[in-house]
Design goal:
Elements lengths: L1 E4 L10 E6 L3 E5 L12 E5 H13 L5 E2 L11 E2 H9 L4 H13 L8 E4 L2 E3 L9
Parallel strand pairs: 5-6
Antiparallel strand pairs: 1-2, 2-3, 3-4, 7-8
Helix pairs in contact: 1-2, 2-3
Length: 131
C-alpha cells in the first residue's frame, strides 16, 4: 500500500492514509489516523466507479476544481467534493479528502493555486496550529 497525506487536518485527525489499487478496486485505509477505533476505517471503490469519476472530471467544462467553496467569490465554479458525492455517492468529507489526494498523487489532477482568469482564483488557505 502507498502512504499519502491530505493537506491539513480534518475533524482533528491527521490526514495520513494509505491506498492500494488492484484489478478490481481502489482500497483506502485510514486506520493509521482514525482515532475512533469503533468506526470503519477501510473503503473499497470499484474501478468502474473510479473510471466514472475520472470521466466526469475530464468532461467538465472548466478544468479547475475547488475543494470546499464552489462558486464562492473568487472561487472556481466546480467543487471536487460535490463531484465525488454526486458521481460515486461518497458523502463522508474525510473520504472525499482522501480521494482528492489520490487524484493528485496519481496525476489525474494537479495541485494549483493562483489566478485562473476572469476574476477567479484557486485559493488554498492555511492556518496556524491553534490549540
Amino acid at each position: 500500500m502507498k502512504f499519502v497525506e491530505t493537506l491539513g487536518i480534518h475533524r482533528g485527525n491527521s490526514g495520513v492514509f494509505r491506498y492500494k489499487r488492484d484489478s478490481r478496486n481502489i482500497t483506502i485505509d485510514w486506520s493509521i489516523s482514525n482515532k475512533n477505533s469503533g468506526s470503519e476505517s477501510v473503503i473499497k471503490i470499484s474501478n468502474d466507479n473510479w473510471n466514472k469519476l475520472l470521466s466526469v472530471i475530464e468532461s467538465t467544462d472548466k478544468n479547475s476544481f475547488g475543494l470546499t467553496s464552489a462558486g464562492g467569490i473568487g472561487q472556481p465554479a466546480n467543487n471536487l467534493y460535490d463531484i465525488i458525492k454526486d458521481t460515486i455517492n461518497i458523502t463522508d468529507t474525510s473520504i472525499r479528502a482522501y480521494i482528492c489526494a489520490i487524484l493528485e498523487h496519481e496525476g489525474s489532477l494537479d495541485y494549483y493555486t493562483g489566478v485562473i482568469g476572469q476574476g477567479v482564483s484557486a485559493q488554498i488557505v492555511l492556518r496556524s496550529d491553534i490549540s
